[in-house]
Amino acid sequence: MSKSGGPLPPGVRLLIAARAVNRLGAFSLPFLTVLVSTEFGAGIATAGLVSAAFGLATIPSRLAGGRLADRLGRRHTILLGLVGCAIAELGIAAAGSLTTVAVFAVLLGLVFELYEPPSQAMIADAVEPDEHVRAYGALNAALAGAGVGAGLIAATVGRWDLRWLFVVDALTSLACAIVVRTVLPADRPRPTADEPSRPSDCIESPADRSAWRDGALLAMLACGTLFAVVYLQIMVALPLSLVRRGLDGADAGLLFTTAAVTVVAGQPLLRLRRPAALSAPSALALGYLLLAAGLAGYAAARTLPAFLAATVVWSLGDLLLLGRAYAVVVELAPTAARGHYLAVYGISWGIAGIAAPLLGTQLLARTGVTCLWTVLAVGALLLAAVQLPLGGALSRALR
């Protein structure tokens, strides 16, 4: 366990570094539809179906990752997911037909989320409860920083051959797997009925307390899904919005880089006295308010500097949101069921991955840029409004 305020444990730092290495190669998926349409002559609709099939497959993948994390072990599940991703990505790179690409895309979806719940659960196992927010913030910052490098690698390799994007992605997955296998501690035996992992587990075992019957977790899942739908619109609709404002759609890359830099540079803010003292509901409400302000800024923006300023604002909200939400879910979970709880909460991103592209493109096409970002800002405000009442319900659930 780490001491409060001290350095994170070496195992956590190594896991975060390994995930950052993996993130450096995680740039191939946005090019899956491009590969399908250019290499195999498929139409846009067909390419979209292949991408949607991948997204749908990630939902059972996340749930399986949580179950395996609690039963098979954290490290074993991470290794299974990373090696499975490498095999599927190499299959896509070597595919000679559209059918083969589709099969490996679905396979990739089925293993793609396996390592997320055990990675998050391993961090929760290794640090004190009051350090969960900082640890998850460090993970998000590392992934954001690696995402900047991933974009540069994609811009270089993608000009050469799209298939090599999947090869490089597979290599980084294998590199991450080697680091995890070599430097992270082996999985500890699961606690038995006679040796509960914490006192509260004497009262109710994970087998008796299904995550799907935990009302507090389901409330977090509902909020997380709405947040994910709003958040993914930034990735989907921002380039199109720039074009409609008469700017270059490629400037979205600059905005995404600005967001990543803001999240990385803002990590020390989480350790200041006032932000650290915020309760979970207050921190989440403030994060959603900043997100709403940034999205409202997009609705009004007409120039690139205005878009940049709005990006910094919502990125500060992102800084407060992601780590804090995972810390709340970990606190709700019985120790031996952390992986399952994190997996159930995490399917919000799978659901949003299917809904967000449909919602964003339809709103943009039918109502325009200003209305799209105004609607999303209202959604963020709604999330801010429910945090304090939700916080009371969470406190009662924890008691």
UniProtKB/TrEMBL annotation:
GO CC annotation: plasma membrane
Keywords: Cell membrane, Membrane, Transmembrane, Transmembrane helix, Transport
InterPro entries, per the entry: MFS, MFS_dom, MFS_trans_sf, MFS_Transporters, Sugar_transporter_CS
Major facilitator superfamily (MFS) profile domain ranges (all copies): 11-399
Superkingdom of the organism of origin: Bacteria
Cell membrane as UniProt keyword: yes
Cell compartments where the protein resides: Cell membrane
First-listed, main subcellular location of the protein, grouped into a coarse class: membrane
Any GO molecular function: transmembrane transporter activity
Range of residues in the leader sequence: none
Pfam families per UniProt: MFS_1
Membrane topology value: Multi-pass membrane protein
Residue ranges of the TM segments: 40-59, 79-112, 135-157, 216-240, 252-270, 276-299, 306-327, 339-359, 371-390
Protein name: MFS family permease
Organism from which the protein derives: Kitasatospora kifunensis (Streptomyces kifunensis)
